[in-house]
Each structure stands twice: as C-alpha cells, then as structure tokens.
From TrEMBL, chain A:
Transmembrane portions of the chain: none
Name the UniProt record assigns to this protein: Coatomer subunit alpha
Main localisation: cytoplasm
Boundaries of every COPA/B second beta-propeller domain copy: 341-582
Record keywords: Cytoplasm, ER-Golgi transport, Golgi apparatus, Membrane, Protein transport, Repeat, Transport, WD repeat
Biological processes per GO annotation: endoplasmic reticulum to Golgi vesicle-mediated transport; intra-Golgi vesicle-mediated transport; intracellular protein transport; retrograde vesicle-mediated transport, Golgi to endoplasmic reticulum
Keyword Ligase applies: no
One of the record's GO cellular component terms: Golgi membrane
Gene: copa
Species per Swiss-Prot/TrEMBL record: Sander lucioperca
InterPro entries with a match to the protein in the record: Beta-prop_COPA/B_2nd, Coatomer_alpha_WD-assoc_reg, Coatomer_asu, Coatomer_asu_C, Coatomer_complex_subunit, TPR_COPA_B, WD40/YVTN_repeat-like_dom_sf, WD40_PAC1
Keyword Iron: no
Subunit structure: Oligomeric complex that consists of at least the alpha, beta, beta', gamma, delta, epsilon and zeta subunits. Interacts with SCYL1. Interacts with JAGN1. Interacts with TMEM41B. Interacts with SVEP1. Probably interacts with PEX11A.
TrEMBL record, chain B:
Statement: the UniProt record of this protein carries the keyword Repeat: no
Source organism per UniProt: Sander lucioperca (Pike-perch)
Gene3D superfamilies in the cross-refs: Tetratricopeptide repeat domain (1.25.40.10)
Protein name per UniProt: Coatomer subunit epsilon
Quaternary structure annotation from Swiss-Prot or TrEMBL: Oligomeric complex that consists of at least the alpha, beta, beta', gamma, delta, epsilon and zeta subunits.
Length: 1182, 309
C-alpha cells in the first residue's frame, strides 16, 4: 500500500472523491466538511454549518455540488464554486448516516437512524420517496450504479435490496410534471409502493454497517459488527450469500469493491484496512494503524485511488505502484506490460512483445536494467516485505513472434535491486544490504564491501550510485571505493544523460542535477511529486511532476512547459516530442513547445545567433521573459522584446545603449527621462546628447558649464544672452565670467547696483574710462571709493585651443553580439567562419623512435644479449609462432592473399603461373598498396611498438588456422573507377586514361569475387579496359604518324579505321574530316555503320561527295566483310582463322611476330603464357 | 570530490591512491596522467617514487624526452634511473647501441628483481630492439601485472597466442578487474579473433565510456571493427581519433587500411601514407614498407631476364 496523502483532523466519518479533479471531501465528527487537494496536499476549503458530526458526504458527478448529512438531521446541498450551502432538506427524524447522489436522476438517497431511507429530488427540493422496512438504524444506503436498485445496511442485521423502478417510472415518465406536483403526498398515499424490497439478505449476526454494489457484476459486499465481510450474489428472483471474509477482529465499518480489480477493501475499528482477493476470499494485504480506528472507505471512480477515514484524519492511498518498469537504449524503449516485455522503436513506433515473463510473482515488476551488449534484462520485483524481493535475469530472444512471444527461462534470485555494471557483470543489492557482483550465469563473482546503502542505481560502466539515508554516493566497483558523495534525501530515480556527462537525481519533491563527478550543479524543489524525467539532446532535463511537464537547465533555470491531466512517465525527448508511458502502460507521444528552454539554453551557452534567431522568429514575448533577461543580466537581449517605451528606455540605459535610450526619451519626452539620459550620456562623454538633455530640461546652469568645458564659446555667449533675457543676474554674471567678458561683468554689476564692485572690476582690469565714469557716480558723502588692490590679478579664463565638437572618444570595445546584430544582420557570420579554421593541429616532431618492426623474419633478430644466458636454466624463451599472414599463404592460392600477407615472392610466382605476368614493375604500386591494407594497428602498453591486427574475410568461422585475409578490393569499386577513365577519355587526356585503364586491368587478378556472374563482369571489365587501351594507344600513335607519302597515308588511314572500329567513342567529326581527305566511299560507310550515329546534313553531303568519287583510289589492308581482331602492337587487323597470339591476362591479340614479347596492353604479361582459364579468382577456388 | 570519512577508513587497505594516475597512463590518456600525478599527494616516499615513475613515463609516451632527461638526476631513486634509461634510448638513435650494450652488461650481473620498473624499462628497450627473447627473459623475473601485460604483448608479437592466453589467465587470477588485465584481455581477444573480437571491442568501449576516449582506445576499437569487416563503423571511430590528433601514426596506418577497404580512390590512401612518411619516418610500419619495396625491386629482377629471353 502506498500512502499518497495524509491529513490530521477530527474523526473522519465520510469521504468522497471528485470524479475529475484531484479533490477529496472529508466530513468530520466535529461538524466540519473539508475539501482537500490530495495532489497539491492542500486544504482548499472548509464548510462548517452542520451541528454535530457529519457522516454522509458525496460529490455530484457533473455539477459543482455536493451533499452532506449530519447528526443535526439535516441534509445540506452545497455548491463548492459558490462556496456555500444552497439549501437544506429536512425530514429525517434522527441522525443521518449516509447521503448519495443518483448518477443520473436529480435524486439524493439518505439513510437515517430513524429507520427510514429517503429519496429526495434536489431540483424540486422535496422528498419523493420514503423506504421503510428496516427495524433498526439504517447505517448505509446506496444506489446501484446502473440499475433501479438500492442497497441498504442496517443494525437490524439485514442488508436489503430495494427495487425503485416504480419511482423512476412515476417521477420521470413523460407525464412526470403531475406527479412532481403531488410530491411528498404520494408517499403518504401509497406508502412504500414506489420502492419495494426485492431481497432481504440475512446472514450477519450483528448489525451491518455498510453495503455496496459491485460496479459491474450482480454482487454486494457488506461489513458488519460481527467482524465479517460478506459477499452476496443476486439475480432477478433471489439473493444469496456467496462467502465470508474473516480476519478483522473488531467491528467492520466499511467494505467496498475495487473498481477494476478482483479485490475487496474493508476497514474496521480494529485499526486495520484489509484487502481481500475476491475469488480466493483470502486476505491479500493488511494495513494497520497504531491508534486510530477506521470508519469509512472511499474508492476513486476512475483512478486506482482510495481514501480511508480514521479517528484522527484520513489517508489517500493506492494499493500498488502504477509506474511501469522501463528502460531506454538508443531508439528502443523496453517496458513491461501484462507479463510481457515489450519493445518500442521510437523511430518507426513499432511496438512488439519480445518475450513473455515467467509468472509466479504476484507483485509487478519494480524496475528494469537493460544490457544492450548482451541483449539481456534484469527485472527487479519488490515484495511487500522487502526481504522477499527478487530479480530475474533474462536473455531476450533474438527473433520473436510478437503475437506469441517466447517465454525464455530466466534466472531468479533474491535481491532488492540488480543493475548492470558492465557488459558481462551486474551488481545485486541483497537483502542484507551488501553488494554482490555477478556474471551472466548469475554466479557470484565477488562481494564488495560498501558503505551503508539501501538502494543502488546505474552509474555507467564499473560504477554504481549508492543511496543511503541522506545522500547518494558514486562508487567505483573496480576500485571498491567511493568517489564522491552528494547530499540529497531519498532519491527514488536516477536519470543519466545519453553521454553520461550529467545525472538527474529525482527524489519525491526535489531534483538535483549533478555532473559525472557527482558535483551538484543545481537543486530544484517541487511542491508536487516528481515523477520521471529524460534528457533532451541539447542537454536540457525534461521532467514530469504529477501535473506538469517541466524543464531544467543545468544552470538551475527551470519552468513549466505544459500541464498534464494524469501522471506520465517520460521515456525520451526529441525535438518537440515527449515520448512517454502512461499509467496503463501505453506508449504515448506528447508535443511540447521547446522554445522557452531552448532560448534560455542558447543564452546560457552564449549562442547568440540562435538567441537572435529566436528573438526574431519565435513568439517569445511577455513580461516573464523580459524580467528573466533583466535578472540574468541580458538587458540588451531584453531590449529586443520590448515595445513599451518606458521599459525600453530603462533597459537601454541599463545596457548603456545611448542611441536607443535617446530614441525612447524622445518618444516619452519626460523631464525625468531626460535627466537620467543626461547623466548616463555624461558618463559616456556623449556630450551632444548631454547638451540635448540639458536643453530639454532647461537646465541652463549645467548647459552653460557644459559649453565652457567643451570650449563652445559661441553657444556660451548665447547662453549669456539668454540669461540676460531671463533676468538671471547670477547666471548672466557667471557666463560673463566664463567668457572673460569684463565689460559685461562691469555692466551687470552696475545694473544691479553693485557700484563699488563694478568700479573695482573695471579698475582692476584696467578699464580706466569705465572706472572713471563709475567713480564720478559715487556720492563722496555717503560712499567711499574702494581701494584697488595693487596685487590684484586678472581673472581671465584661458581661451580654448580647440573646441570639442565630437563626442568624447571611447575605448574601442568589441560590440556586444546583439548591438552588432542590430547594426549588421550578418555580422555573426564572420565569427563562425573564424571558428571553422581552428582545426589546424600542430605537427608532432620526432616520429616514433622505433627501431624495428615486429614482423621481420626471425633470422634478422639480433641474438639474445649475453645477460640472457645466465637465466637460461629456468626460462626458455618461446619460439615464434605462426602468424595469421603465414597462414593466409598456406591457405590460399590467390595472389592477392599472398600480397596481403606480405609474401611478394609467392605472390609473384602465382601471378606468373596463373596469368603469365613477367614484368612486375607496373604492379609495384598495387602490391605496396595491397600489402599496406593487410594489417591494422592497435596499441598495447604505452611507448611500445604497436601490435598488429589481421582483418580476415572469413573471421566468423575460420578458427585459428583457416583464416583468409580481407581483400578490400571490390569489383564494384573498379567498375566505379571506370567512370573516371571515361571522363579522361572524353576530355582527351589519353595517356592518363591509358594509365588508369591499365591499373584497373592489372587490379582484376587481385579481385576475389563471389559468383559466376561477377566473373563474367570482371571479364567484361578486362575487355573494356583492353579495348580502350588499344584504341587510345592507337589514337596516340596515329597522331605521331607522318602523312607525307601515300604509303604512310594508307597506314594512317588503316589505323583510323581501326580506331573507328575498335573504339567508337573517338570523335565522329574527325572521321568525317578524314573521309574528305581520303575519299573512300566504303570507309565512310563503314564508319557510319559502326558508329550508328544519326546522319546530319553535313554527313549526307560528305556521303554524296564520296559517292561521286566512285572507286577506291588506293588499296588498303582492310576487308570490311571479315570479322577481325586487332593486333595490339602493330594495329594490323587479324582476321579470323589466321594465327594469333593472345595475352592470358588481358586477352589482347598479337601477330605471331610479337610472340614472347611483353603484352602492350598490360605491360606486365607475356603473350605466350601457359593456357589459363580466367584471370579472375573465385572465392571458392581457395 | 569528497569521500565520506567512514568509508575512507574502511577502504584504506585496498585502495590504490595512485589509481587515477596509473589508469590514465594505461589507457593512453597521458596528459591526464600528468595532471593527476601533479595533483595527488602520496602518503609514503615509495608512493612518491611510483608516482614520479608514471609521471615521467607519461612524458616519454608524449615523446617529451627532454623533461625526463633533465628532471631525473644522478641521485634519483633507481626506479627513476631506469625510466631515464628508456628516455635516453628513445630520444636518440645514435646512443642506442651503447645503451643496449650497457643494458646487456647490467642484465649479465645479478638484477634486483624487486625493481620492477627496471625490468619493465629493460624489456621495453629489448622489445624495441626486437630482441624478444631478452625481453621475455627480463619480464620473467617480475611478477607485477604490468610485467605480465608486457609479456603478453611480446608473445602476441611473436604470434604465440596460446602462451599469451596462459599469461592472461595468470593476470586474471591476480586481479580480473584491473585496467591492465582488461586491456590485455582485449589484445588477446583481437589476436584470437572470431566472436572474441566483439568482447575486445566492448572492453575498449567500456573504458572510453568510463574514463575518456583516447587514441589508444579508439585505435583498439577500430582494430576490432576492421577485424570484423565493419568498415563503416571503423571509419567513425578513426575519424574521432583523427580529430584528436591528425598525425598519430597508428591512426594513419589504420586509415590506410580502412580507405582501401572502403573502396576510396587510391589518392586518398596515398595521402595518409605521405602524411605518415612526413611525420614518422622511423615508424616500424614505414621501415617494413621500405623493406618490402626493396624486396619487390629485387624480385622483379628475378623475372626480368625471362621476359627478355
């Protein structure tokens, strides 16, 4: 039993689940009704109007209503939205025990200690029926979920089933208005005729406290003070007792059927809740409390949830975990559903059952660990008593029929948890909480001493995460030591990122993200239960709580992506898709909007181009993003989102963007804005903006001073004028002082009546006339002419050398990405290009200081050092073994195998014998290349010469002695290379082309092919190469031939014909030219015939010209009617039936005069080699 | 990393404080080995020597011989002197004969078999000299895991897989989970071939998962793949190795093999070969290659007279 939620309160007498929302109503003994959200674990509301205990409580299925009944004889109907009681139904004459809504009709059913059951219409607010017959308190009465039946339980020791179809007909038949009006009076008139007792179930020998219908079957369960739970069956005519569940040792207060499983739940004053198996009638589980008697049970109509009320509160619980056991590897999800292990391919969404699990455990699979290397799973099963937990090791069958999958024999052992620690090892936490390492045969390999631990989790190869009471420890199984510990209470699940660089530790209400070294990166607290999680490709952790899909960045940022109706278990996240399993174990895919976390991730990773892209293209607006950006110190990014000028202004100031701020300030045009802008601009030395700000705010003093320090005398003088106009004496004087304008100062002083000061100023500055004039105005009686200080100095500002008209120079700071991006949209391209060039890696000098290769023949070995002799007595160095290369030579007669083995000598002999090669020089490159692909390298101990691997083509089944090297030369590759040669030919690079054709031709004997068809293809390849080589050489020859004499011209012509005949791709036009020069009609005809080209107008003209010449002017060595081969050396046609020498490799023909010479085509073979069937090697020929 | 004090005490007995240093060295993560060695604070002077030994050997593996030659002084412990000997041997071609002669003399006298480092270094030199007999004889005196591992390597180079397996069994009896045992298992598995190739691959793969992928591990994986004719997979692994170090000789050699098997144009292969010739003239592969070229030329001459006759 898993407790999901607990409350503490007065005794709980009634309970009701809301059918849709995560709510439960609890009616208390003290008269209060509580409305709880069991998911958020909060009290939503309290309804306190009943006087004394409230025992009946029920939510309406559709409407925002609930009904309650109490010891104050009142039935109250409440609206939880309006949060008040709508009305009260009065009529019962004693305590009310239960109240229930009908699932369809507007009825309320109430049971009371006044020995009656009443049915009320809550729309008309009247009692429509009174069911009498019980002769003691009626403890419980409930409607049947589908039929017109009522079941009631009473302290008169009976359970009664009532038929209320009469009432339905009367009240809800078409003419029901009438009867409604009659209302309660009908009851008086007809007594209980609307509702008749159908069955009276007798069997309990004490009062019955509770009776309930089965949701689908014709069954009733009842609980009574005789401490028994009875199951009754009924049909149309009768009802009988099926069985009794004994076990409670005090009054049974309530008993209900499990809505979906074959179980009965009952609770009792003996402080226990018991779960019974319906078919076996045996107790399955017992849940006890220490001090609280249980009073009531409630089952959720749709979910696997129950609630039980007791003396000091209530509990919401479920009987078993609903989390499916699953494991993800690559694109595959493995999960357990209904005793099957299923496999889901995320890409193709193909879902197959791969294996049937061994039955035997009544508990569902708790967790799974999958081993991709061995295709094996460990399935752990938790028993109620942890010590009885077991695990099964299965090897998943390779092939399976999804309809009827195999049930392979697994290996079962006891142990709390089993997880893979390596390809062929797994760790088991046994019931003594010690750690065992086992192999694939389920044998203990070793025992590992571990610090105290209650659970183990996967942590990559060779490591485990151990959970103890208050933390998680990373433990290296190989070194048997703890590597790191992090404090987090009660971790339930562990989710590694695919590259195992990060791990998310999920506890009930907390998530911690750590790196590989288990250093905590961030800690997130959740109010709601954390359910599951998976890492997204870009390193964002997507997790679910009971009602949300959320994300967490490793930096600690987290937020909600979307809400959920029901809990899901995330298996994988790709792009917009969240793959998950629901509680019914169905794989589902939900779509999410990843913009927000991608945006934040891009910000954190400083991928500003991405950020900018999202800013421009995604719908990312809203105060939260702006606030987030501001908080995280990205005001310049936030600037992009903001339309509101005021926010824009302050953001711009924050990131020091004066231009944007100025714009915003202009739009706002508020004094405070200008002031703030002025300050900011002044700090940046942006004095033009400062000037504008001062002008806008009419801050003349500051403006004057600004002009002074920037040396702007013209404007300073203007300011003086303005001050004069404004009659601002002090400002005026100050400006005059700044300007060094003495006469102005004198004038000001005079005008404001400061005569003596004016005099002094004039006198001191040597304005004698002025001084004299002033002196005269002095009244000698009253005024004294002030003494002029002889030491007085002229107070004159130094003239500005160069007025400052540009802004204060700023340090060149690289523009922030966003400013740059605003300035030039493709600004960030350069940066990216720059990145691309970082690939250059320094050459390492020195080279490997290695003296000798490993595989030099033994005779070259330096004899053992003198020191070796002394130990000979007890250590004899082994002789050299046979290398795979040697075996290749022994096993094969194919030249290529010998070359790969590095045995050139034998290879040459074979080539010589098989295809008559005598001149190996053209083969050198091929030999060297082939030899170099024969062996791979791998490093053994550092600083030692490397070891060599020997790839073999029959590695799967060759054993130790039968190896043959992997050839690495494929017919298809050679054919592909032909294309290159063709291109060279068409572009006229004949010599190069010949070279390449020859390489291909020479490569053919080094092929190993699989079947006859490939032999044919290879031979065809030889033919093609040969003909091209002959043709191209001929063409090259032709160009070299002189044309002077007739004989030579004849020869040339012959060659030309052959060119045409052999190799039709030679330019057609060239031929036409020749035809014109040597007007041989037949020549043209033949060429025309062979080329099979569509005659153009031009060719027709030539043809007609040829026709006119009528006869062949000269005799040529050419017989158009006889099939012929061409001598590859002299380019003379060799007609059929004449003696011919053939090259065994290329099949090129020669005049007998060339016998014994090197084949012109291959340049390796002799044209008199021994007879040979084919130069191509069939695999089986080995 | 914080280690709870309780388990520290419990584990003191069998925890190797130099584990990270050694492990990094063996899997070919030399810089990490150096970093770890500089970080770790040994509890005893002999541990300090051991740490230095690995530190200097890591420098040797990086071919930074000068560091070793300069750092190890005449008064350093004998273990380090041995390391210095190897550095001297590898650093210059000219002194090699003298060093080997000197080593032969030392070996002729009685050798302190407890100085495993000396044995290892001596065996390394003999192995470089292709004097496998002397190498094996030297290693025979040591009993450490590394001696056994080196024995296995020498035996494999002699194509004595049978003996290598016997030696491996001894290693497994001593410590099956040790990094060296695992690596040696992989080498032997590659030599055995067949189904064992996959096991070998997993060993390399697990190590790179667990620690970090290194050129040594990647080339091991590539060798397994290529032995199984899985050329495409091998390409991915070798590309990763090439990204780590574009002139690593073994990677280049493997690429020479791979490109041909994948049917790439001969130019691609030749490019890798030229790269190898450019940077690692003294590599055994090239020496062998040149020897084979000469052999070829010699053999051609044998056929030539027949052709003209």
């Amino acid at each position: 039993m898993l407790t999901k939620f607990e409350t503490k309160s007065a005794r709980v007498k009634g309970l009701s689940f809301h059918p849709k929302r995560p709510w439960v109503l609890a009616s208390l003994h003290n008269g209060v009704i509580q409305l709880w959200d069991y998911r958020m674990c909060t009290l939503i509301d309290k309804f306190d109007e009943h006087d004394g205990p409230v025992r009946g409580i029920d939510f309406h299925k559709q409407q925002p209503l609930f009904v309650s009944g109490g010891d104050d004889y009142k039935i109250k109907v409440w609206n939880y939205k309006l949060r008040r009681c709508l009305f009260t139904l009065l009529g019962h004459l004693d305590y009310i025990r239960t109240t229930f809504f009908h699932h369809e009709y507007p009825w309320i059913l109430s049971a009371s200690d006044d020995q009656t059951i009443r049915i009320w219409n809550w729309q008309s607010r009247t009692c429509v029926c009174v069911l009498t017959g019980h002769n003691h308190y009626v403890m419980c009465a409930q409607f049947h979920p589908a039929e017109d039946l009522v079941v009631s339980a009473s302290l008169d020791q009976t359970v009664r089933v009532w038929d209320i179809s009469g009432l339905r007909k009367k009240n809800l038949s078409p003419g029901s208005v009438e009867t409604d009006v009659r209302g309660i009076s009908g009851v008086d008139l007809f007594g209980a005729s609307d509702a008749v007792v159908k069955h009276v179930l007798e069997g309990h020998d004490r009062g019955v406290n509770w009776a309930a219908f089965h949701p689908t079957m014709p069954l009733i369960v009842s609980g009574a003070d005789d401490r028994q739970v009875k199951i009754w069956r009924m049909n149309e005519s009768k009802a009988w007792e099926l069985d009794t569940c004994r076990g409670h040792y005090n009054n049974v207060s309530c008993a209900v059927f499990h809505p979906r499983q074959e179980l009965i739940l009952s609770n009792s004053e003996d402080k226990s809740i018991r779960v019974w198996d319906m078919s076996k009638r045996t107790g399955v589980q017992t849940f006890r409390r220490d001090h609280d008697r249980f009073w009531v049970l409630g089952a959720h109509p749709n979910l696997n949830l129950f609630a039980a009320g007791h003396d000091s509160g209530m509990i919401v619980f479920k009987l078993e975990r609903e989390r499916p056991a699953y494991a993800v590897h690559g694109n595959m999800l493995y999960y357990v559903k209904d005793r099957f292990l299923r496999q889901l391919d995320f890409n193709s969404s193909k879902d197959t059952a791969v294996m049937q699990l061994r039955s035997g455990s009544k508990f569902p699979v708790f967790s799974m660990s999958y081993n991709p290397a061995e295709n094996a799973v460990l399935l752990c099963t938790r028993a109620t008593n942890l010590e009885n937990s077991t695990y099964d090791l299965y090897s998943i069958p390779k092939e399976s029929d999804s309809q009827n999958p195999d049930a392979p024999e697994g290996k079962r052992s006891s142990g709390l948890t089993a997880v893979w620690v390596a390809r062929n090892r797994f760790a088991v936490l046994d019931r003594m909480h010690s750690l065992l390492i086992k192999n694939l045969k389920n044998e203990i390999v070793k025992k590992v001493q571990v610090p105290s631990c209650e659970e183990i989790f996967y942590a990559g190869t060779g490591s485990l995460l151990l959970r103890d009471a208050d933390g998680v420890t990373l433990f290296d199984v190989q070194q048997k030591r703890s590597l790191a510990t992090v404090k987090i209470a009660k971790v339930k699940y562990v989710v590694w990122s695919s590259d195992t660089s990060h791990v998310a530790l999920l506890a009930k209400h907390a998530i911690m993200i750590c790196n590989r070294k288990l250093e905590s990166l961030c800690n997130i607290h959740e109010n709601i239960r954390v359910k599951s999680g998976a890492w997204e490709e870009s390193g964002v952790f997507i997790y679910t709580t009971s009602n949300h899909i959320k994300y967490a960045l490793t930096s600690g940022d987290h937020g909600i992506i979307r809400t959920l109706d029901l809990p899901i278990y995330v298996t994988r996240v790709r792009g917009n898709s969240v793959y998950c399993l629901d509680r019914e174990c169905r794989p589902r895919v939900l779509t999410i909007d990843p913009t927000e976390y991608r945006f934040k991730l891009a910000l954190v990773n400083r991928k500003y181009d991405e950020v900018l892209h999202m800013v421009r293209n995604a719908k990312l607006v809203g105060q939260s993003i702006i606030a987030y950006l501001q908080k995280k110190g990205y005001p310049e990014v936030a600037l992009h989102f903001v339309k509101d000028e005021k926010t824009r202004f302050s953001l711009a100031l924050e990131c020091g963007n004066i231009e944007v701020a100025l714009e915003a300030a202009k739009a706002l045009d508020e004094r405070s804005c200008w002031e703030r802008l002025g300050e900011a601009a002044l700090l940046q030395g942006h004095h033009q903006v400062v000037e504008m700000c001062y002008q806008r705010t009419k801050n003349f003093d500051k403006l004057t001073f600004l002009y002074l320090i920037t040396g702007n005398l013209a404007k300073l003088r203007k300011m003086m004028k303005i001050a004069e106009i404004r009659k601002d004496m002090s400002g005026h004087y100050q400006a005059a002082l700044y300007l060094g304008d003495v006469s102005e100062r004198v004038r000001i002083l005079k005008n404001c009546g400061q005569k003596s000061l004016a005099y002094l100023t004039a006198a001191t500055h040597g304005l004698d006339e002025e001084a004299e004039a002033l002196k005269e105005t002095f009244d000698p009686e009253k005024d004294t002419v002030p003494e002029v200080d002889p030491n007085a100095q002229l107070l004159q500002p130094s003239p500005p050398i160069n007025p400052l008209d540009t802004n204060w120079p700023l340090l060149t700071v690289s523009k922030g990405f966003f400013e740059g991006a605003i300035a030039a949209k493709d600004g960030f391209m350069d940066a990216q290009e720059g990145l691309g060039e970082e690939g250059g890696i320094k050459e390492e000098g020195g080279g490997w200081e290695v003296e000798e290769d490993l595989d030099l023949p033994p005779e070259l070995d330096i004899p053992a050092g003198a020191g070796g002799g002394a130990e000979d007595g007890f250590f004899v160095p082994p002789t050299k073994g046979m290398s795979p290369a040697q075996m290749w030579c022994n096993n094969s007669q194919l030249p290529v195998d010998h070359i790969l083995a590095g045995s050139f000598e034998t290879a040459m002999r074979l080539l010589h014998d098989q295809v008559g090669v005598v001149s190996f020089i053209p083969y050198k490159a091929l030999f060297m290349q082939t030899m170099s692909r024969g062996r791979t390298c791998y490093l053994g101990l550092p600083s030692l010469p490397c070891l060599r691997g020997h790839p073999q083509r029959n590695w799967k089944d060759c054993g130790a002695k039968q190896g043959l090297p992997a050839v690495g030369l494929r017919l298809s590759d050679l054919i592909a290379r032909l294309q290159q040669c063709y291109q060279l030919t068409t572009s006229g690079r004949f010599e190069e082309a010949v070279e390449r054709f020859r390489v291909i031709l020479l490569s053919v004997p080094l092929l190993v092919v699989d079947n006859k068809q490939e032999i044919a293809e290879a031979q065809q390849l030889i033919t093609i190469c040969r003909e091209y080589i002959v043709g191209l050489t001929m063409e090259t020859e032709r160009k070299k031939l002189p044309k002077e004499t007739l004989d030579q011209q004849k020869r040339l012509c012959e060659v030309n014909i052959c060119v045409v005949v052999i190799h039709t791709s030679v330019s057609f036009l060239k031929l036409i030219f020749l035809c014109v020069c040597f007007p041989y009609r037949w020549l043209f005809l033949i060429s025309y015939h062979r080329v099979k080209s569509v005659p153009t107008i031009q060719t027709r003209k030539i043809l007609s010209a040829c026709e006119k010449t009528l006869t062949d002017a000269h005799q040529l060595n050419y017989d158009p009617h006889n099939p012929f081969d061409l001598c590859a050396a002299s380019f003379v046609p060799l007609y059929r039936g004449r003696p011919v020498e053939k090259c065994p490799l290329s099949g090129a023909c020669y005049c007998p005069t060339y016998k014994g010479q090197i084949c012109r085509v291959t340049q390796v073979g002799r044209d008199s080699g021994p007879p040979c069937t084919t130069p191509v090697n069939l695999k089986s020929s080995s | 990393m914080s280690i709870p004090p309780t388990c520290m005490a419990a584990q003191q007995g069998d925890v190797d404080e130099l584990f990270d240093v050694k492990n990094a060295y063996y899997i070919g993560s030399y810089q990490q080995c150096i970093n770890e060695a500089q970080k770790v604070k040994p509890s005893a002077p002999e541990k300090e020597t051991e740490r230095d030994m690995f530190l200097y050997r890591a420098y040797i593996a990086q071919r930074k011989y000068a560091v070793v030659l300069d750092d190890i002084k005449g008064n350093s412990p004998p273990e380090l002197q041995a390391v210095k000997m190897l550095a001297e041997y590898l650093s210059s071609d000219s002194k090699r004969d003298a060093i080997v002669a000197d080593l032969d003399q030392k070996m002729a006298r009685s050798v302190d078999a407890s100085n495993t480092t000396f044995l290892l270094m001596a065996a390394s030199i003999y192995y470089h000299e292709m004097n496998t007999d002397a190498a094996l004889r030297t290693l025979h005196q040591g009993e450490s895991l590394e001696c056994m591992a080196m024995t296995i390597q020498v035996l494999l180079s002699l194509d004595r897989v049978d003996l290598a397996r016997k030696e491996l069994k001894k290693m497994q009896e001593q410590d099956e989970d040790a990094t060296l045992t695992q690596l040696a298992t992989a080498w032997v598995n590659i030599a055995v071939g067949g189904e064992k190739l996959q096991d070998a691959y997993y060993i390399f793969q697990e190590m790179s998962d667990k620690y970090s992928s290194t050129l040594l591990l990647l080339n091991g994986q590539a060798a397994c793949y290529m032995a199984q004719n899985k050329w495409e997979e091998a390409e991915g692994v070798l590309q990763e190795a090439l990204d780590k170090d574009s002139s690593h000789p073994e990677t280049l050699i493997n690429l020479i093999v791979l490109t041909q098997h994948m049917g790439k144009a001969p130019e691609v292969t030749n490019r890798y070969l030229s790269q190898l010739k450019d940077a690692h003239r003294a590599h055994p592969f090239l020496k062998d290659y040149l020897a084979k070229e000469n052999e070829f030329d010699r053999l051609v001459m044998q056929y030539a007279p027949i052709a003209t006759a």
